[in-house]
Amino acid sequence: MSRTVVTVPDVVGAGYADARRVAVAAGLLVVGVAPDGTPVPDDSAGLVVEQDPLPGEALRAGDTLQLRVGRPPGGDREPRDPDPLTHTGHGVPTDPPAERTDPDDDPDLVPA
């Protein structure tokens, strides 16, 4: 008995839960993986950033669609406190630059 041919839906950019529902409704099994290759839970809030096979390809019902899942909109981490770039002086001058003066009063030649 042959399995029904299904067309792989385009789910890149969708939330993982929605993408999973669409793929399952098309007759596919879904495997979600994080960028590091670890499995993603079915209720992940992440977004699908890549899929394999690509949209439009023909598969048999029951074949597997792998979805690579990224962070949810807005990220999934709390902001660092304090921000090292603004609180440690890295990249932020702590004193105004020294004013350059012309030692010989020649307006065209100012030391660099």
From TrEMBL:
Name of the protein in its database record:
PASTA domain-containing protein
Q: Which domain of life is it from?
A: Bacteria
Task: List where Basic and acidic residues composition bias occurs.
Answer: 74-84
Q: Note the InterPro entries from the entry.
A: PASTA_dom
| Residue ranges of every copy of the PASTA domain listed in the record | 2-71
**Do you know which Gene3D superfamilies this protein is assigned to?**
3.30.10.20
Q: Name one Pfam family in it.
A: PASTA
> Which segments of the protein form a coiled coil according to its record?
none
Disordered, as annotated region: 57-112
Comp. bias intervals (Acidic residues): 102-112
